[in-house]
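Instructor's aside before we start: the two examples that follow are unrelated to each other. I chose them only because their records fit on one page, so don't look for a connection. First example below.
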Amino acid sequence: MTGIMASRLKLVLVASGLTALLQPAFAEPPRAVVELFTSQGCSNCPPADALLVEYSQKPDIVALSFPVNYWDYLGWKDTLAHAEFTHRQKDYAHARSDRQVFTPQMIVNGKKSCIGSDRAQIEKAIQTTAKGRSTLPVDIALTEQNGMIIVSITEIAEVAHREAEVWVLPVLRSQTVPIERGENKGRTVTYANVVRGLKRIGEWHGGSARFELPAEAARSGADGYVVLLQAEEDDKPSVILGAAKSAGL
């Protein structure tokens, strides 16, 4: 290979690498966000955890595990649980006015509560909350450049909620936990897309918007991150209008 040809090849590879770096996580918005509230101390949770692993492998689904801590009193402390996730689950219940808090519970698009292991119920909830759309109504594109994450928001369909908050969630892609005590003693459970925190980075008021934050802050030591655009009602989480996930999730 001549020096000129090698130089051209290097330029092509560099250009291709930059293009890949700047590509959004989704070519189009996902069709749903599913949030599983689960616990290592819950004997009914492993089938739901396995189902969430399946959903995490679908490119058009944002699947998240939220380990809760209210079963810790049984004697086995959930090693991934956080009180903030329990608070989020209870806020959802108050927002729906049904006060139903249980594990495994799946919340679909911020609105519908389902049994976390009931695939048919979850699929029906996805269709119901989509309201005839094939994707969420607001597009979120993610790019990374010079150590910064750029979150670009574009409204692609009319939405009832014109006010929403932008959240970044650090996520562990997969965690396998051997459970030594409690109802699941002796089992080894794999959890997909385990959320490690909730960080509010701004407000959205309809139309197009742009937000930036350091990539290190978004990951916070996790494998990747998810961005949610979520409306609120009476200071409680409501419908999810848009979502995106970083590469590899």
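Example two begins here.
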Amino acid sequence: MPTLFVANNRTEHMVGDLAVLTDEQRRLAGYTAQRMLSYVGEGDVLVVPHPPNDSFARYLTELMDVDLGKIRMMAPPPGRFGVDVLSADRFEDFRFDRALAAAIQETGATRLFPIIFDAVMVRLARRHGLAADTPGFGFVGQGGSDLLNSKSVFRALAGGTGCPIPEGRVTANAAATEEWLWELLSSGRCAIVKQDQHVGGYGNEILSPYDGVTPIGAAEVITVPDREALHDLVCRRWPWYSGDGRRRVVVEHYVPDCTPVYVEMSITDDDVELFGHGEMLTKPIFNGLVIPAQSAAHPGWPGYLEAAEKLCQAIRGMGYRGLISIDGIVTPAGEVLLNEVNGRVGGSTHVTRIAQHLVGPAFLRERVVMQRHFWPVPSFDQALAALRASGLAFDRETRTGVVITSDDVTGGTVEYCLIAENVEHATELEDRIGKLSVS
């Protein structure tokens, strides 16, 4: 079925206000939107923030056994925030909308598949007659996506279904936030404050009553020695925590030295099925993945999967259809806790799709996949040539090697995933990449 794919990698719906993103964060969103090239098939339409390098696009689609010439790739004119994010104003351009309508008609596309369903995508689906064949549109068409990308709503859903979650509260004002934070900090525990809607750890802040805590899932740890310091901090940071008072705030007990994990599920009319799982590499915020999760051997892992499926069955009953990621943590004490849900295409989805295609449906049992960002290289072409010359590029016969998954033309980096036989082999490949001379 021909599909309209939209690589809306960062939207107001995901991060609140696109204006608060730095130029670097918007640039990251723009080039990692290229990951969606691994989703499309021949006859599909793909809307991207800006067209990728042609040689990279041909490389990735050839790996996925798709003819790039049979994909209709389009980018709207620059908007308020330039070309790196698909902001709402870019879809309001009349000429682009007319060209998009023609592409939909010529390809026969009947459904919409964005990274995230926000109000802009809902309007787009209705305007171009894609609502009827888009799975779960009855839910997302009424703003349901707001629920499944909200950290406060997650706590309500998880609590209501009996899922194990970190101790915490959802707060609506600065006084309640300060009160709960002090309850944690005064008892010698750390806390994490989470913006209700943000991604990649950029909307989180960790507070500690003592020094020496390593941040995982946030950029830094702020030491708070007493109640007066906490009061000053909350007063100063409340507008950032709450989006100038427009959103609720999540405050949780932060357990140091946890292992971040995730499980991705596919929710259909028929059932909930496991799509993939892994561990998130943080330095200190999200910096890559290891798939499958090495914590799958942990005694608490089956309970984590059971809780995730239970949560997804409830979400399925609400009417959501599509991929959904449930994040969690493995604590030093051995607990496996759920701590977030994202009803959208996740940062791991493209890696799983690539591995499924190149290795096979049993790749979770047969291979270890590691994804990394920010490999500094002069250009994609030079990086690929170096990988091929060194024997590191993906080999279809051995079903191992490195796949470049996005190309940051202006920043001089690429994102890659490496497919290995086991953890030791993955470590060896990453070490060889680090020593590779690219010129």
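Residues 301-318 form the longest helix (18 residues).
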